[in-house]
Every structure is written in C-alpha cells, then in structure tokens.
Amino acid sequence: MQDTIPEMMTAIAIEAPGGPDVLVPCEVPVPRPGPGEVLVKVAFAGVNRPDVLQRQGQYPAPPDASPLPGLEISGTVVSVGAGVGTLQDGARVCALVAGGGYAEYCIADAGQCLPVPDSLPLDQAAALPETLFTVWHNVFDRGWAIDGETMLVHGGTSGIGTMAIMLGKLFGMTVIVTCGSAAKCKRAREIGADHAINYKESDFVAEVARITDGKGVNLVLDMISGDYVPRNLKCLAEDGRHVTIAVLGGAKAHVNMAAVMSRRYVLTGSTLRPRPASFKRLLAREIATEVWPSVENGELRPVMDASFPLTRAADAHRRMEAGDHVGKIVLEV
C-alpha cells in the first residue's frame, strides 16, 4: 500500500498561542514510520483538554513529538515500520499518540495501538485511548483502587469523568461525581454514577460526608487542584488516596500535612504525554488484558458528545471550552 500514500496531507496547525482561531488547516508532508512505528490513515481524532492547553501555549509538545495537536486517533494502518510484527496494512486500530492526531495521516507507536473490533465504530474508537489510558493508570495503578471502594470524581460529565464513572462501575466501585448543573448531574447518573453532586448548589464536602455516613471516600480523582485540594482531603477516609491529573483551578494548594500524616493519606498525580513510549507500551499491554475485553464485548463504550469535520477544529475547541459538552468530542478526518 506504500505507493498509494500521498506526499502531502491536510493537517491542523497552531499558528501561534491563542484562542481557537489560531487552529488553521495547512498542507504538510505525510510522515513516514520509523522502527517500531506504523502510519495510520486517520478516520477520527479525539479532542482533549491538553489540546486546548497546547493551543494556548501552556502545554508544549515533547521535543520528539509532532508539533501538531491531537493525542488519540482511530483509523487504518497503511504503512509499517521496521521491526513491527504485530500489525499489518489494513488493520483497524486506535492509538494513543504524542501529537499529530489532527491530520489525515499520523504516526503511532505500534505498541500503543489497540485493535478496533468490527462492533466498535471508528468515531467511538478515537474517543477511547486518551481517557482510558489516563483513568486506568491514575485510578488503578497510582490510586490502587479495588472493588468495593468509593471514589470521588470531579468534572463528572467530562471525557475523563465519564470514563472514570464507567471504569469504576466496571470494576465494582461506588462512584460519586461533582457536576455544575442539575442536568449534568442527571446525565452523570444515567452514565452510571451512584451519586452526583451539583457543586454550584451544595458543598461537596458536606455531601460526601452525608453520602458515606461520615466515612469518606477511598480515592479522589482530581483535575481541579488549587483550593479544591484541602477540601478533597476532608472527603478522604483514612488511608485515602488523592490523585491529581490536571490543575484547572490552579497549580498551588495549601495542605494540612498533619492531617496527611495522622490519616495516612497518599497524595500523587501524573501527566501522561511526557512519559516515554516504553511506559505507554506497558500501559497499553495492561489495558489490552484488563479492559479491552470489555470493549470487544460491547460492555464499555465512550460517551460521545459531538463530531466536527477536521477543518472545523476551532469549533470543536470552542465547544470544549464552553463547558457544555458531555463526554467526548471528536474530529472526522
């Protein structure tokens, strides 16, 4: 299939740091896969909060990554690099990528690709990798979550939040989420949350205490940080774990370390994009074993919000920044 691959492709570039209008279509060379890599003809690309931050100049691409935005894709393998024995031309895959997803073709590490079953539409496949890798690693690997435990998730109707609800329920957890409206709380419960707190109308610390009969939760998945951190800690049971994956409310927090010691809290967090490919391959392997069977049998599906054509990436970012979306936004290529 090599001779059918064009020299140039349409992609979305970031002209300069700024608002959605800096996302502009352009013509760039089609990349070629190196050892251990595959070239994917992109069908859909997921839109994620890190894309917005990159566009704003707050989250630059790693030195060895494409400067184009886009951290997850679905599509068809059209070229295979040296040493790749697991994938062939024509394979339907979705993949976590370090950049370059907003384009007609994208390089993916073969070890970070997951097979797309026939029952999974490609728009949904593109909506899985970023949130699935992030939630799995932070809730189950770093947060040590086990069945029977209770988890508090902020931003319950975001892409991360909806995935956290579904994975938590898939693995036997009680899930409490916070949302910014009664409508979003209702939607979160429909997705599977056991409890949804409207943080604009109620104090989530008091509500968590009420819901758990004062025991608190075992795990907080936090994407707000800032002044939420001390409030989150008040929600934790003894030996609770606080896992930070974003700092939308500010990077600095005041923490009562005496409470951390006396109640044996664990405070941790991570970012996924800068991690080496070797780590992401191991994570993909773990997900393929532990979670992907639930994708293949139809038990796990992403919550979809909206799809935009690739050339309307700016509108997709506006949709995300407006905060009205529930679940995942994707670009159709």
From TrEMBL:
<protein>
    <submittedName>
        <fullName>NAD(P)H-quinone oxidoreductase</fullName>
    </submittedName>
</protein>
<feature type="domain" description="Enoyl reductase (ER)">
    <location>
        <begin position="18"/>
        <end position="331"/>
    </location>
</feature>
<keyword id="KW-0560">Oxidoreductase</keyword>
<dbReference type="Pfam" id="PF08240">
    <property type="entry name" value="ADH_N"/>
</dbReference>
<dbReference type="Pfam" id="PF13602">
    <property type="entry name" value="ADH_zinc_N_2"/>
</dbReference>
<dbReference type="InterPro" id="IPR011032">
    <property type="entry name" value="GroES-like_sf"/>
</dbReference>
<keyword id="KW-0521">NADP</keyword>
<dbReference type="InterPro" id="IPR013154">
    <property type="entry name" value="ADH-like_N"/>
</dbReference>
<dbReference type="InterPro" id="IPR014189">
    <property type="entry name" value="Quinone_OxRdtase_PIG3"/>
</dbReference>
<dbReference type="InterPro" id="IPR036291">
    <property type="entry name" value="NAD(P)-bd_dom_sf"/>
</dbReference>
<dbReference type="InterPro" id="IPR020843">
    <property type="entry name" value="ER"/>
</dbReference>
